[in-house]
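protien #1 (seq + structre)
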Amino acid sequence: MADDTSADVWLVVGLGNPGPSYSGHRHNVGHLVVDELARRMGSGFRAHKTGRADVVEGRFGAPGSAAPRVVLAKARTYMNESGGAIKALATFYKVPADRIIAIHDELDIDFGTLRSKLGGGDNGHNGLKSMRSSLGTGDFYRVRAGIGRPPGRQDVADFVLSNYSGVERKELPFQVDSAADAVESLVTDGLEKTQQRFNS
């Protein structure tokens, strides 16, 4: 791989909780999206030398293309402690906050829809809160995968830490695919074009 300046590297983080017991939860949609991006790159996740995350390094686009270098990451810590692992990766790869993309579930967006933005609040999301605390800023990109609000009086925590419904599971691959497309678009085409294409 050719030498790269640090400004050329993007860190793409899929927020979620580690381990198979959490893998199907709404809170783990970020993991599903980076898994799809890794599949597109033709690579599997491996432990990073920091010991706190699993990563894939590569580029979006055809082999040999001049596309920016990308590091896909999944923290090995629980969601509410993921910021430390992400900060360690950002330091290791010399990635500034405005070259970090966090993919996460979003309660205030209907299931099946997406939004992308730069910066903003945490909206009670523990992964975003941990990232902001560890990075010292919230000025990173977000690809927000809508999960909607819990039905009836179901507790929000129970809702995000539960599996998708049967109907949702049929639609989930389309949402994951679109979110992966949105991440690629952010890296290659920028925020404005990505918002025009994917924000619904």
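ok now protien #2
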Amino acid sequence: MDREIYRFLHSLNINFRKKTLRELLEEEKPYVVINGKRHRIKKRELNLLKGLTDNLDLRIPIVLEIDASLESGTVKISGREEVKIISKILGREINPFSEENSLYIYKPEVRIVRRHLPTTTVYLFKIGPVIE
């Protein structure tokens, strides 16, 4: 039974190709490919992101990583620019000299992030190797 659950969770991981904010802003109907299917990106979100960062090389979608080794309800965001953007959305203080590449947020904060960025964020489930 545990193997079946593990395999199911492993199959939830997605394959996607990221695009830059610049590329998506230039597209008439912005999208990324997730698991072989077109996933539309809302222009409203792209404009929000453009207002939150000067870095048009930001890679979309922003990954919300759910790691089985972390406390339940904990989500990790990786990348310096991604951390800055999510911190701004959550109203967290940002140290301009910080080199932080990771940010951990919890369920209530995830809801806030997803409310603002539903099409430009994606969940990634991180689990160990497949058990045979």
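The helical segments are 2-11, 21-26, 43-52, 80-90, 107-116.
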